[in-house]
Amino acid sequence: MTSTEESLSGGPAGYRAVLAVREFRAVFAAHLLSLLGLVTGELALSVLVYRVTGSPLISALAFALGFLPYLLGGTLLAGVADRYPARRVLVVCNLLCAASTVVMALPGAPVAVLLAMRCSSALIGPVLAGTRSATLGDVLGEGDLFVLGRSLIRIVTQGAQLAGFAAGGLLLTAVPPRTALLCTVAGFLAAALLLRCGTRRRPGRATGGADVVGASLSGARRLLADRRTRALLLLSWCPPFFLVAPESLAAPYADAIGAGTVGVGLLLCGMPVGTILGEVLAGALLGPRGRERIALPAAAVLLLPFLLYVLRPSLGWALFTVALAGLGAAYTLGLDQWFVAAVPEELRGRAMTLQTAGTMTVQGLGMALAGAAAEYVPVHWVVAGSGVTGTLVVGSVVRLVVGSA
């Protein structure tokens, strides 16, 4: 059996078949390099802002600004992903992010400039992510290899976040934050070079017509007007809104159970570990039909483990709970196949950009609302409440997806 045939049957060679595609390896490696640099840069920027201002609020804002502009960039700039050749968009986005980081690393740059550059990178982020996802359809086709390719991108994203924060923490013990920011610049520049040399030039999917903003807004209207696409976008956005509750409240929960800073770090690792495990198992052990069959049941129950927080679990049980919820994120593999099939090819870049922007935005909102609720309600009740409310909401969305088929 060939690698491609095994991939289509869901055998263990599925991920190997994806990595056997030369262009995908270039996209994958570029994403890994830029992501490791970005995570290190986020940590360095937060430390730098805190050292300059002494304000925990402004330091936290440096992180939050990585989420907030996503909606604006994903809504107004999504048309770029379809209007221009994908390789050019990917290279230019990485170069612009590198330029923004160079400004951050300049000695004496004011805090306002640091935050403005953070915003500019976040505006570019959804266009970069959406174009990359759409490019996977060109490189891998619209079948099972596309699904497994997106799965690998998500897996490396989760893993690189864990590794990047650890590496960034070690790096900051040896060099100043502004020097550490240069690692981010190097990551973006290396990614741009890989994409320029390792991928083929393909023409844009959409030509002529309205300007970029007009094309972005009209594309969003077309996507949201379609019943099937709208239901699938909601299924992309609703679970992450609730899934971030235990992560956003890791520090106060660890303090409440006496787990200390080590507990905070472990609680932040639980969800990514569960998510990676779920993606790998679903991608390696299940075929396309199997992943589609489990998608809706997994989405419907993935928040139920949060109900264990009613018992105010110890650190070990809390880790088990969030990791178990992370396993349910394997529903995204089936969702990816439905989504790429439902979206017209000329709207694929805008669709992927809108999907990414929405996911990042709802995560930021979910974190903020969970934190606000924890001001008045014990943390373990907030997480348990997220599980109850989220299960009801996601269940309603699942019914919409079934009705739109």
TrEMBL record:
<feature type="transmembrane region" description="Helical">
    <location>
        <begin position="352"/>
        <end position="373"/>
    </location>
</feature>
<keyword id="KW-0472">Membrane</keyword>
<feature type="transmembrane region" description="Helical">
    <location>
        <begin position="178"/>
        <end position="195"/>
    </location>
</feature>
<dbReference type="InterPro" id="IPR011701">
    <property type="entry name" value="MFS"/>
</dbReference>
<dbReference type="InterPro" id="IPR036259">
    <property type="entry name" value="MFS_trans_sf"/>
</dbReference>
<feature type="transmembrane region" description="Helical">
    <location>
        <begin position="26"/>
        <end position="50"/>
    </location>
</feature>
<dbReference type="InterPro" id="IPR020846">
    <property type="entry name" value="MFS_dom"/>
</dbReference>
<feature type="transmembrane region" description="Helical">
    <location>
        <begin position="379"/>
        <end position="402"/>
    </location>
</feature>
<feature type="transmembrane region" description="Helical">
    <location>
        <begin position="257"/>
        <end position="282"/>
    </location>
</feature>
<feature type="transmembrane region" description="Helical">
    <location>
        <begin position="294"/>
        <end position="311"/>
    </location>
</feature>
<keyword id="KW-0812">Transmembrane</keyword>
<feature type="transmembrane region" description="Helical">
    <location>
        <begin position="89"/>
        <end position="106"/>
    </location>
</feature>
<keyword id="KW-1003">Cell membrane</keyword>
<feature type="transmembrane region" description="Helical">
    <location>
        <begin position="231"/>
        <end position="251"/>
    </location>
</feature>
<feature type="transmembrane region" description="Helical">
    <location>
        <begin position="56"/>
        <end position="77"/>
    </location>
</feature>
<protein>
    <submittedName>
        <fullName>MFS transporter</fullName>
    </submittedName>
</protein>
<keyword id="KW-1133">Transmembrane helix</keyword>
<feature type="transmembrane region" description="Helical">
    <location>
        <begin position="317"/>
        <end position="340"/>
    </location>
</feature>
<dbReference type="Pfam" id="PF07690">
    <property type="entry name" value="MFS_1"/>
</dbReference>
<feature type="domain" description="Major facilitator superfamily (MFS) profile">
    <location>
        <begin position="207"/>
        <end position="405"/>
    </location>
</feature>
